[in-house]
Automatic annotation (TrEMBL):
Residues 254-474 form the Suppressor of fused C-terminal domain. One of its GO terms (cellular component) is cytosol. Residues 1-21 have a biased composition (Gly residues). Belongs to the SUFU family. Residues 64-240 form the Suppressor of fused-like domain. Gene3D superfamilies: Sufu, C-terminal domain (3.30.1360.230). Residues 337-348 have a biased composition (Basic and acidic residues). Keywords: Acetylation, Cytoplasm, Developmental protein, Isopeptide bond, Nucleus, Phosphoprotein, Ubl conjugation. It holds the Pfam family SUFU_C. It is found in: Cytoplasm; Nucleus. InterPro entries: SUFU-like_domain (IPR020941), SUFU_C (IPR024314), SUFU_C_sf (IPR038489), SUFU_N (IPR037181), Suppressor_of_fused (IPR007768), Suppressor_of_fused_euk (IPR016591). GO terms for biological process: negative regulation of smoothened signaling pathway; negative regulation of transcription by RNA polymerase II; signal transduction. It comes from Pachyramphus minor. This is Suppressor of fused homolog.
Amino acid sequence: MDGVRQGGGTPASGPGSGSGSASGSFPSLFPPGLHGIYGECRRLYPDQPNPLQVTAILKYWLGGPDPLDYVSMYRNLGNPALNVPEHWHYVSFGLSDLYGDNRVHEFTGTDGPSGFGFELTFRLKRETGESAPPTWPAELMQGLARYVFQSENTFCSGDHVSWHNPLDNSESRIQHMLLTEDPQMQPVQTPFGVVTFLQIVGVCTEELHAAQQWNGQGILELLRTVPVAGGPWLITDMRRGETIFEIDPHLQQERVDKGIETDGSNLSGVSAKCAWDDLSRPPEDDEDSRSICIGTQPRRLSGKDTEQIRETLRRGLEINSKPVLPPINAQRQNGLNHDRAPSRKDSLESESSAAIIPHELIRTRQLESVHLKFNQESGALIPLCLRGRLLHGRHFTYKSITGDTAITFVSTGVEGAFATEEHPYAAHGPWLQILLTEEFVERMLEDLEDLNSPEEFKLPKEYSWPEKKLKVSILPDAVFDNPLH
């Protein structure tokens, strides 16, 4: 449960009494990590030393449910010269290391990221007559923080978040989010590492889909050019009733469609409800079945083997434009990989933090025939995978959210794949690779055209290419939520 209070009584506002407070008689009251972020807020808002804050009543490190200790809320007057309206500016405290004593984040030094390396911000248009900031954005930020803490997957500028619900629980069309660098807040060097500030930007469903099909940065740039849709500071207006494509129909054809054709999609993987079956084996042969499996007796791999396989799956899910899959014996690299920071928890990590890997994972199998299964939301991304990724010589991975299963589609231009033109279906334990030629991709796009019209879709739906020995089924969510269904 969160409480709203004036900031003067919290550690976050303590430095407001003077710079000497943090280094005087009571340094423990003002943790250095928190002090560093607060200092950046004071730089922007020198006239608001004691902002309203939403405070976690029971801190996360004391067993509470909310990872963010505080969310500060500032009144920003905007910039009339840039057509930036007055708005509320929210800043989180807790995704970075505030304390440096390992109570929440492991201290790893001053040169790298502090904690997860970022804090969240959000800019909400101020309504006429509104004297105090709404508090629902703080709960939204807590929800995103819970995801980061539970999955240990970090966010980066250009990422998108499929929320499928109005951000303020109203009837608004703003139901999803993109992430970008905050336009005013600068990275902060703290004694526990560097903190950057990622701003949440509310978007409509059509804008989310465009970001998936092209890339998040491209859509963010379009939003900046439309004042009512965000403007240069990307301010969210929950009352916005039109998408940028309804406001300016030329944006879809002249910018997005052209961008997809020229650049392809930057989305190289998603967490999804998916599974696969090896149809070339008898149904009763459970030992190597890699759909949703019940009752198998796996063994533990060595730590080195486990780490190598986790690294490969993790890197296969990262956003990148290079048409190369990492080799199965890829070693962990320090620092950044391509355009994204590595997650602190890898794809095959089990809830007990000791991954159990099926015994067949250490060898690659060539399959004669496969059956792919997706829920409707995941299946709707198959055309994006084919048109935006494979036709541009790239790969696309579905990673199951209900198990260790992963499905990677690769084109003939992808290096490092264990699927080949001679053996287009290959499995490395729960990881299936499907190699598709350009000719077959074009045919599949024609056959899967109705996936673009979900309102006319009835489940279950099956697509089959017998001569290719490939079958794709779009199934209800219940099939994946209940493996025994």
